[in-house]
Amino acid sequence: MAKEEPLSTSKDLKELQKKLSLLVESIQNNLKVIAFMKSPVGQYLDRHPFMALTVLVFVAMSAIPVGFFLLIVVLTALAAFVGVILLEGLVISVGGLSLLCVLCGLSFVSLAMSGTIIVSYVMVSSLFNYWFPPRCNKICIPPVCQQRDL
Question: Where are the transmembrane segments (predicted)?
Answer without folding.
Answer: 55-87, 99-124
